[in-house]
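Today's session is about reading a structure prediction critically. Students often jump straight to the picture, but the first step is always the sequence itself: look for stretches that repeat, for charged clusters, for runs of hydrophobic residues. Only then move on to the predicted structure, which in these notes is written as discrete structure tokens rather than atom positions. Here is the chain we will use throughout the hour.
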Amino acid sequence: MATTYNEIFASFKDDITDTDLILLSKDLQDETLVSLLNKAITKCERICNINMSRDDVVQTFEEDIPNDVIDIIVEWMTVFWLKPYLNNMENLRNALNTKDFTSFSPANLLEKISNRYELARKHARSLTNEYSFIYADMSGLKT
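Below is the predicted structure for this chain, in token form.
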């Protein structure tokens, strides 16, 4: 049975808490999630070496996607979801203009978002590498 986008989206929504995403209309929410999904797939499709052909209209993959690959896709979706928060100009302005660098300062917030983004990126990359080591095809290598 082919994997549906909703299976991946549900896993992604379990990993994040974004009330803004939940408040979006169903169409806009799907558009946002499909965009994140497509970006995430570009990061792991070549390495995972499985058929990730899909239909964005029906929102299903042509084949069943293994759970470990779904985990990688969800981690990359998280990285791409965090990126706009990191690149938010308002956060940057606050960080550059703040007079009081307390533990609740905008600069501290930007640093925490940056740290979280970097952690998510490293974890996604680690999962992708681990997958490639486990399922690598070594038959074509010369000895």
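Discussion point for the tutorial: Residues 90 and 106 are 9 Å apart (CA to CA).
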